[in-house]
Amino acid sequence: MSNKVADVDHEEKSYGKPLAYDKNFKGPIKDRSCTDIICCLLFLIFIVGLVVVAYFAFQYGDPRLLVYPVNSNNEICGYGKQLGKPYLLFFDLVACGRMGVGVFVKGCPTPQICVSACPTENKVLIPTVDAKSDFKYCKDGVDATTSSKSEDALLSDEDCARYWFKSKPLINRCVPSFVIDVLEKGKDMATAVADADVNATDASGGSYGDSIIGDSLGVYGTFLKAKEYGEKIIEDVWTAWWMILIGLFLAMVFALIWIIIMRWIAGFMVWFTIFAFLGLFGFSTAWTLYQYYELKDTSDSFHIQFSVIQMTMSKPKLFLAFGIISGVILVIALLILLILCSRIRIAISLIKEGSRAVGTMMFTLICPIFPFALQIVVVGFWLTVAVFLASTGRNQSFDFNNNSSEYRYPNGSYNYENIQKATSAFFGKACDNTSLSSSEFCTFLKNQEENFVIYSQIFNLFMMFWLVNFVVALGQMTLAGAFASYYWAFEKPRDIPAFPILSSLWRCFRYHLGSMAFGSLIIAIVQMIRVLLEYVDAKLKGKENPVAKFFIKCLKCCFWCLEKFLKFLNKNAYILIAAHGKNFCTSAKNAFMLIMRNIVRVVVIDKVTDFLLFISKLVVVAFAAATSYFFFDGRIDFLSSFTPSLNFYVVPIVLVTLGSYVIASCFFSVYEMAVDTLFLCFLEDLERNDGSPEKPYYMSKDLRKILGKKNVMAPSEKKEF
User: Fold this and answer.
1) What pairs with residue 95 in β-bridges?
2) Taken in order 255, 260, 266, 269, is the CA torsion positive or negative?
3) How is residue 497 annotated by DSSP?
4) pLDDT of residue 709
5) Belongs to which family (predicted)?
6) CB burial class (10 A; 0-12, 13-18, 19+) of residue 541?
7) What angle do CA 404, 410, 412 make, to 5 degrees?
8) CB 676 within 8 A of CB 572
9) DSSP letters along 605-623, please?
10) How far apart are CA 715 and CA 322, in angstroms?
11) Spatial distance between the Cα atoms of 200 and 380, rounded to a whole number of angstroms
């Protein structure tokens, strides 16, 4: 007895005292005050900063500049000095193709120029035959007809293209017509090259053979093939879009039905899995030991070979080893089951109660739709701003050496005031085309622009993390408030307040924006550190520094674990904030202490819930995938008339499967939040109340029965639920 008291005293000192009874607490507190106001103000300031960065990006960026090609002078075709020349022509397209797919990543090292139109003929220049007037495609500033260089020098110095193919524009690049014919007419590349009767020469004037041309340009054919597949996939999606929506709707209905029936099948699923596990290892132990006794007097052996390694193992010893391992696992599993049996029953009962809570408040199932949509909006906004920011560094719309009235006076002199304004606005972009300022000043302005764009991208990424986690916090706290209202209703569903979801959402916005901002800020900082570690790890690839690599791997692992722990702690903190209205730090501390005082129960219910949710998601996704497969493959006879004709029938099946997984995750996230909220409320109920008429338990009758507890109340006041 003394040891038990000592253990309790040690527990109270280590993880705080159990919660005391509060006669005024009847569920989520309505009279509460704003929490974490400083974090709320900081969050709003950062939102304003994001608006400023977005304004700069939208004002001075143009995503089209990321799509338009650039010539060898890094000038964008169709803009600035290359206005009216929207297409890119490669001087030696065959040499580019010989780089393989790397040409799409690293670019082509041969000269390339912007042209107003792609070539309409196949041509190979021969210096001793062709005149300078035939040199149609030369670098900017090079006029072959007036150049003092000879025809041979113009080609050897790569001032002009040696050859060109009849081409068509594709994403503003001049692509040989016969390459496009490979797709449109179904030819192979060798046949297309032979039919086009083309020729090409390298930088030294040597002729490329048809095989080299075909092999080199095949990389562009691969790109076009991928483009064709992409177009067919889009066509299939467009054809079957309404059928895909019906499939997702059926997945949603099935997930809803599954959640409702979980109250009846949860116990069966858990106990069946446990006994199946025990039966499997029991059979494994008996069979392997039986085989050992049958073979122990023989010299049978296994011969195993892995590449150059050969191994010989005795069959009796191998069966004995497997028998011992299986037996040890079986004994451990049986001991765990005997010790944790009551806790497993509690977990099952809470899962059933979660199903009842969701069934009572059906509107909770649509709650995840709004946070999910908001997260898509946040990520989409981040991506849009990032693209616009990336394009600000390529803006070439100013050329101060032209005769624009905006930058020159009628007499031809410069309008310094307008030039200074434009230069300030674009951080020195004018320095590329004017000598008005010193080179040091131009370099300074360019560095400021580059730094601003980099810092803006980092800030934009950080805000994306913060906002996404804020939306997650909003969804979790809203659901926690609703489910806490359910648990602390003494007689369900009569005592559940009207509109519990809307009331909880109102309390989140009215009182706890700062707490949600605080919790999401912590997660965002950890995620930014993880991004930094990934960047450093990428930079260390190929470097011979094993010590640095080891420390980076350790740090990545530690911060991954830290993020998981903080997300778990935040979710439980939001539950207590929703119920009691205290600030984030106090709620996180109370949640942590409450969990540590009941750590075994927490582990059991967490793992049991994870297992059931995994099985449930698997069932929903399998149902959606199987149904869509049989439908789109035409195997459902009475629906065969509705089966569309598609290029790839696997496309809608994949989309339905992925969509059903997202739907199942959204629906079962509500279920998981219900179980977590009810569990914390259950732990509070155990500590606050004792079943007396003054302090009755709020837990369900099933939970009281498992724990051997009951409410002792006056006959006139006795209420069972």
Assistant:
1) none
2) negative
3) P
4) 77
5) Belongs to the CTL (choline transporter-like) family.
6) exposed
7) 75
8) yes
9) HHHHHHHHHHHHHHHHHHH
10) 61
11) 45
**The two three-digit tokens of residue 65, written as one number:** 């500049």
Residue 438: per-residue pLDDT: 45
User: Can you say how many angstroms the Cα of residue 237 is from the centroid of all Cα atoms in its chain?
Assistant: 22
- The C-alpha atoms of residue 436 and residue 438 are separated, in whole angstroms, by 7
What whole-number distance in Å separates Cα of residue 591 and Cα of residue 47?
Answer: 29
Helices 500-511 and 513-540, packing angle to 10 deg: 80
- Can you give the pLDDT at residue 5? 39
C-beta atoms surrounding 415 within 10 Å: 16
From the number of C-beta atoms within 10 Å of its C-beta (0-12, 13-18, 19+), residue 136 rates as middle
Six-digit token string for 301:
């052996």
Query: Quick one: tokens of 307?
Result: 């590449």
pLDDT value of position 122: 85
Terminal-to-terminal C-alpha distance of the chain: 36
Helix (H) or strand (E) holding 696: none
Record the pTM: 0.75
d(CA 244, CA 250) in angstroms, rounded, equals: 10
Contact 582, 35 (CB under 8 A): yes
d(CA 398, CA 1) in angstroms, rounded, equals: 87
Query: What's the pLDDT at 54?
Result: 93
Q: Are 186 and 167 in contact (CB under 8 A)?
A: no
Q: How far is CA 442 from CA 134, 407, 436, 450, in A?
A: 40, 18, 10, 12
Half-sphere exposure of 348 (CA within 13 A, CB side): 19
Question: Which residue blocks in 304-368 are alpha helix, DSSP H?
Answer: 315-360
Query: CA 626, CA 254: separation in Å to the nearest integer?
Result: 13
Kindly compute the dihedral angle of the four CA atoms of residues 144, 148, 150, 151, in this order, to the nearest 10 degrees. 0
For residue 107, what are the CA distances in angstroms to 69, 177, 179, 509, 672? 10, 21, 19, 50, 49
Residue 419: predicted pLDDT: 41
CA dist., res. 227 & res. 231, Å (int): 6
Separation of alpha carbons 660 and 650, rounded Å? 15
Backbone angles phi, psi at 497, to 5 degrees: -65, 155
208 Rama sector, left if φ>0, alpha if ψ -120 to 50, beta otherwise: beta
Neighbours of 646 (CB within 10 A): 17
C-alpha triplet 406, 407, 408: angle, nearest 5°: 105
CA 251 to chain centre: 22
The Cα–Cα gap between 388 and 473 comes to 29
Burial 656-688 (b: 16+ CB within 10 A, else e): bbebbbebbbbbbbbbbbbbbbbbbbbbbbbeb
- For residues 346-382, b (16+ Cβ closer than 10 Å) or e, as one string? bbbbbbbbbbbbbbebeebbebbeebbebbeebeebb
Query: What does the block give as tokens for 252?
Result: 């949603």
Q: Residue 301: count other Cβ atoms within 10 Å of its Cβ.
A: 14
Tokens of 249: 């709707």
Q: Which residues pair with 305 in a beta bridge?
A: 310
Running along the chain, 721 residues long, what does each successive block of 10 average in pLDDT? 41 64 75 92 96 90 76 80 85 74 58 90 83 86 85 85 85 80 63 69 70 70 70 83 88 84 79 84 88 77 54 74 88 86 83 84 84 90 91 53 45 44 44 45 54 88 96 94 90 83 92 95 96 87 76 92 94 94 93 89 82 83 87 76 78 89 86 89 87 83 79 55 39
- The two counts, helices (H) then strands (E), for the chain are 21, 10
H runs (alpha helix) in 63-203:
64-67, 93-97, 103-106, 151-156, 177-184, 189-196
Q: Considering only CA atoms, which of 46, 61, 45 is closest in space to residue 384? A: 61
pLDDT recorded at residue 210: 67
